[in-house]
């Protein structure tokens, strides 16, 4: 057997059409499930050719032939996270008002996100909304962009919730502006020794929020101790673990001696760059005999529904989560206005251009 025959290329629709002696359009109608009728003789020829060539129909092409499905696919990182739950609620409500159903998929990392998008495009939904991790350097990034471009070229709509600097519409919020506002409130409230819970370094929202709070602290003459910065991975459990680790190392209070942050004077507040980390941090503080809102200030970012119900209630930056979902649906269902993807000025849908700080019990004045 020749070397080139070991791994023959899979048969294409054109191969089947040529083998059957029919047009590509006829072969497509037979194999991709078109509602248009085909003569019985042609149908038999196409099916025989497909069997002989071991042709496998493309699910994406089948969906295109049948027409756009009346649904939207929403991809989130974690449906149990109150942030994604609130965004999902906005998407489902807005779509339902337009008579459109929503299929929700969970993709916790870039690899599973790409696979989920591939499966979604094969069903030819009316739109795909991606509310995910925003990782800006994943190796799957180029493949994701190519897959979504093919989907849009076939008439679909792709929208991101939070911008990932890809050539698709994105609902965006004022991350750095909000972070500057919450940091200014912290400084104005008398706090000078913050511990910071951030997300992964390649997570866009975390980078923007961290840059905002650090700029304000620097301007106020506050040098953040590197010992008091930890990665809570935007997770309640990881936020809890990060604070527990700081406590074990003696970096939260003056009792830690040489290991303590701020030269043994201890931390006076926890600045979490999202709400679920802040909630996890408050539980960890209590586990170490430190009462949040009394012994130590705590702030979050996002204003998830639970942030008003925890004790003490959480001071945070409000994000219009349900409105973000609504804006994404509106973009998916809006009438086509030509190709706007090449115009960077038209790609972003800002639902929050100025910060809305919610002052609650977790950050009393000192």
Please, could you describe this protein's structure?
With 366 residues, the protein is of the alpha/beta class. It is built from 13 helices and 12 strands. The radius of gyration is 26 Å and the shape is elongated. 42% of the residues lie in helices and 15% in strands. A 6-stranded parallel sheet has the order 2-1-3-4-5-11, with helices on both faces. It has a 4-stranded parallel sheet with strand order 7-6-8-9, sandwiched between helices. Strands 10-12 form a two-stranded antiparallel ribbon. The longest helix is centred in the N-terminal third of the chain and has 16 residues, at 82-97. It has helices at 13-20, 24-31, 40-53, 59-66, 82-97, 110-122, 141-153, 175-188, 204-219, 236-248, 275-287, 321-333, 344-347, and strands at residues 69-76, 101-106, 125-131, 157-161, 170-173, 194-198, 229-231, 269-272, 297-299, 316-317, 348-352, 357-358. InterPro entries: HTH_LacI, Lambda_DNA-bd_dom_sf, Peripla_BP/Lac1_sug-bd_dom, Peripla_BP_I. Residues 11-66 form the HTH lacI-type domain. This is Transcriptional regulator.
């Amino acid at each position: 057997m020749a070397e080139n025959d070991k791994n023959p290329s899979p048969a294409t629709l054109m191969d089947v059409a040529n083998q059957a002696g029919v047009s590509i359009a006829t072969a497509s109608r037979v194999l991709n499930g078109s509602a248009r009728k085909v003569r019985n003789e042609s149908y038999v020829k196409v099916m025989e050719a497909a069997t002989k060539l071991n042709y496998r129909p493309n699910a994406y092409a089948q969906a295109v032939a049948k027409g756009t499905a009346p649904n939207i696919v929403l991809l989130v990182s974690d449906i149990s996270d109150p942030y994604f739950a609130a965004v999902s609620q906005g998407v489902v409500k807005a779509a339902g008002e337009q008579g459109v159903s929503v299929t929700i998929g969970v993709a916790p990392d870039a690899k599973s996100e790409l696979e989920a998008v591939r499966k979604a495009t094969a069903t030819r939904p009316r739109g795909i909304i991606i509310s995910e991790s925003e990782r800006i350097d994943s190796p799957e990034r180029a493949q994701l962009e190519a897959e979504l471009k093919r989907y849009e070229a076939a008439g679909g709509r792709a929208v991101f919730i939070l911008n990932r600097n890809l050539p698709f519409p994105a609902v965006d919020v004022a991350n750095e502006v909000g972070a500057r506002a919450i940091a200014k409130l912290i400084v104005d409230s008398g706090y000078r020794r913050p511990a910071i819970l951030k997300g992964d370094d390649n997570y866009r929202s975390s980078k923007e929020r961290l840059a905002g709070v650090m700029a304000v602290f620097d301007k106020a003459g506050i040098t953040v101790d590197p010992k008091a910065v930890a990665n809570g991975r935007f997770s309640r459990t990881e936020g809890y673990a990060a604070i527990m680790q700081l406590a074990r190392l003696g970096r939260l209070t003056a009792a830690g001696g040489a290991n303590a942050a701020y030269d043994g004077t201890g931390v006076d507040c926890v600045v979490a760059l999202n709400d679920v980390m802040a909630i996890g941090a408050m539980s960890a503080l209590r586990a170490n005999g430190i009462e949040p809102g009394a012994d130590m200030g705590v702030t979050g970012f996002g204003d998830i529904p639970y942030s008003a119900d925890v004790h003490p209630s959480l001071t945070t930056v409000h994000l219009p989560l349900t409105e973000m979902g609504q804006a994404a649906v509106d973009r998916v269902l809006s009438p086509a206005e030509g190709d706007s993807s090449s115009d960077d000025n038209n790609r972003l849908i800002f639902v929050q251009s100025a910060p809305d700080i919610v002052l609650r019990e977790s950050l009393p004045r000192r």
